[in-house]
Amino acid sequence: MNVPSTTNGSATNAVPRYHVLSVLVENKAGVLARVSSLFARRGYNIYSLAVAPTDEDRFSRITVVVDVESAPLEQIVKQLHKLINVIKISELDPRDSLERELLLCTVKATPEVRGQVIELVDLFEGRVLDVGHDEMTLSLDADPNRLDDLEELLRPYGIIDLQRTGRVALARLEHVAP
Amino acid sequence: MNTNGGSALIKALELEGVEVIFGLPGGAILPVYDPILDSPIRHVLVRHEQGAGHMAEGYAHATGRPGVAMVTSGPGATNIVTPICDAFMDSVPMVVITGQVPRPAIGTDAFQECDIVGITRSITKHNELVTRPEDIPLAIRQAFHIATTGRPGPVLVDIPKDIVDPKNPASAMDWNWPSDADVASSLPGYKPTTKGHPRKIKEAVELILSAQRPVIYAGGGILGARAAEVLRELAEMTDIPVVTTLMARGAFPDDHPLCLGMPGMHGNYTAVTAMQRADLLIALGSRFDDRVTGKVDAFAPDARIIHVDIDPAELGKVRRPDVPIVGDCRLVIEEMVRLLNHRTDGDVAAHQPDRSAWKQAISGWQEKFPMVYEPSVDGGPLKPQYVLEQLRDRAPEDCIVASGVGQHQMWASQYWKFNHPYTWINSGGAGTMGFSVPAAIGAKVGRPDRMVWAVDGDGCFQMTAQELVTAATERIPVKVAILNNAYLGMVRQWQEMFYEERYSEVYLSPDLPDYVKWSEAMGCVAMRVESPEEVGPAIDKANEIDDRPVVLEFRTDSAEKVFPMVPAGKSNDEIVVDPSLREGDR
Is B498 helix (H, G, I), strand (E, B) or coil? Predict the structure, then answer.
């Protein structure tokens, strides 16, 4: 499953065709099911999902990426707000937020091509985690687009296993003094 | 450890002011039923758990207090799913307590186990599986707080058997009663907005003062907010006509000169058309339901919209408002009234445009398109509308009417005169057949001082009639009028009008079951009424009986259809009136 790319084209200010929601929730049993079922009941697939406690144990942050048009999304966000366990929701515009995702990949790397694979990983500032006789496991944490790119470049070598975490995101900071 | 989860649960319900529980015990909830014997709370033993849910709803509709139902796990819990959905759709405050299998057995497909929290997740305002006995008092406090504040709704609390069974050490706990502050801090994500935004209210007031053809579109939220009185104040001071939706019948008196009655698919011509032609709709606690709007794109095309609702998700859900106001209807309307007075120095009329043409148009429609029906021919079957008129005229004005779902529901809403709030109880959003008998019983339990009539159809009656056994046993003297047309009447009407009279699976037979014998077997007084001259005397006789339930079976005309009607998916401009009013047919 490929996460949709950030924009329609390469132009940096093109309109994103997916939405990233950052949902602050109570860290409790069943909350994730409540959140995800609001998408499921309308037949919308969740592309990626990352959940973990925040700095305060009582709360978790759910980062959810969905391919939903703006109008139904507005309604879903309002419905999310109605969930008793939901504290806060912000939609993150990919143009104004920092996104990171982690990729782990085991790729075929016989001794003859091992050097090429390592070079690729170095170019992306990824890391080699494990080396086998003719395989290699590597990792990359970066902007999700960079993960897409590396994935495509590794594909010809033969991807044996690949796992991505789903993206997490925070809003960009102001750079100009107020 | 000074108590156990079961005793704590009942004590918590007592402290929440619960006076009655509608329920039916079973294995998983058994330990909670023991302390009920020593509690001042009344328990009404139903014959089917669906009855418990609808009774709790009827109780809540009639009293404004949350209804409480208690059932066991598995099938007990699934049987109450329909009333929960019904309460969710109609924003009825209700707390449902379900037994659950002991914690170690959860997830093992144990006897009578089901994931009721999962099943009801999307049809409750909130639900919770309680996993520790000491959490029970807080869970109950939260349940009542959530069910009754903001937009009201059903809350389900699922309680495993081992934490309420005093024989099980796992149920031991120290009693604790959380304060309001504890409840608030335990719900960090729940803060309903009740006070409307002052700037938005100001904008609304300006729109009201400049509108040429305004209509107030009052919904069930008026009743939920106890805002009937202030609604009347607003309507009278601005001289703006009011439509009351199916959920809001009685929120504004039908005998008031400004009342236009019910809009929507089976609303009267004037209410429907006034909304269509309006230049301003003041939507108060209403949700632009498809049964009201007809085809949304063609609904009230010239109208600007002020939309007041406690639920932010309603604003813009169907129709984008010009002035959205999130807040409690009563508080917002009070503020509107205050601001209108302030803005006009107490003389609102002097600051409004001349609306005489609008008023003339409205009275013209009222004159041209009244509610009419063809009276029955000699020896022919009864007209259901006639039965409703007789029931209405022979009941005290504050009589509570609970209805099932279908043709009889529409006729009851159309022909009754609702002059008091909280006198009309029906299943609007979910459209649950079988609602009326148990809802009427719940209403009568909550308002024993009032006469309560259930208006039911023969199809509906067969779904929940067994609760009349409950009513007879508990001496709850409700009255039931079955409009027996031997059909699933509304389905028949659609098959006649939209399926070329191809009647598929709608015939029920007038004689099977024998409603009189059946009702008598359930401990009711029962009478069959077949001719118009019997109608009045039978109703009078029923009205005199106050020590047991009464069932009147009226044999009504199966060919009768509900008019006016806006066919589903059509614009409200395409309203079809009674054949006798149609041009060319006269």
Answer: helix
